[in-house]
Amino acid sequence: MKAVILISGNGTNLQSIIDHADSINLEISAVISSNKKALGLKRAESVNINTHFIDSNIFITKEAFDRELISIIDRLDVGLIILAGYMKILSPIFIHHFSGKILNIHPSLLPKYRGLNTHKRAIIALEKHHGASVHFVTEELDGGPVISQEIVDINTNDTETTLAKKVLEKEHILYPKVINWYTQNRLKLINENTATLDGKIL
Ligand code: GAR
């Protein structure tokens, strides 16, 4: 299955997906970044994947930016859009255009800690556990149905940095696993709140 991967930063999840691509039947048609300096762009270029940088500063509205994104992705004719550390909020126009075809990975055990600074917030709240979630993207920010999660323990000596590292290691296993389910046509978004794996509600 052809996919496009949207990034904004380091791209360690992108790297993991690149490394697993053959075994999960994924052809990465392009990597699109909202950040010109994203290390992920270099990772893609080094294995000859097409890259695009879209500069949000040249668009007057978020919708205009997303329409450009839509037109690039439509031309690529992909079956899946993978958000891998993409730090822009997608507009409803984009989400409806590709409904049921957008996956995101989020660094928390959703529905806990939507949004930013998830590691810091989990430590401050004295959580014992934290983790990562992969979910379908719907209009509600970080609120689409969760597909699968990985859990890590929070130790008393954990800092934001050590916790982020532990969570990322889990993300690198979790995301290719879920993408594989998708490329095998086993995953479906039924509605805003419901996803299925092999026809069973998750
Ligand atoms: C990952 O931890 C991912 O879960 C998070 O950004 C990091 C990207 O790392 N995504 C979000 O916070 C999305 N709201 P990476 O660029 O090394 O893959």
Features:
202 residues; 6 helices; 34% helix; 2 domains; alpha/beta; seven-stranded mixed sheet; binds glycinamide ribonucleotide; Rossmann fold
Characterization of this structure:
By secondary structure, the protein is α/β, with parallel strands linked by helices. The chain has 2 domains: 1-98, Formyl transferase, N-terminal domain (Rossmann fold, 3-Layer(aba) Sandwich); 105-173, Formyl transferase, N-terminal domain (Rossmann fold, 3-Layer(aba) Sandwich). It has helices spanning 12-20, 39-46, 62-76, 92-97, 118-124, 160-183; strands at 2-7, 27-33, 51-53, 80-83, 102-106, 129-136, 146-153, 187-191, 194-197, 200-201. It starts with a strand and ends with a strand. The mean pLDDT is 97. The protein binds glycinamide ribonucleotide. Residues 9-13, 40, 84-85, 105-107, 132, 168, 171 line the site of glycinamide ribonucleotide (GAR). Glycinamide ribonucleotide binds next to α1, β5 and α6.
In short:
This protein has six helices and ten strands.
Number of domains: 2
Question: Termini distance?
Answer: 23 Å
Overall spatial form: globular
Radius of gyration: 16 Å
Order of helices and strands: EHEHEHEHEHEEHEEE
Please give the count of helices.
6
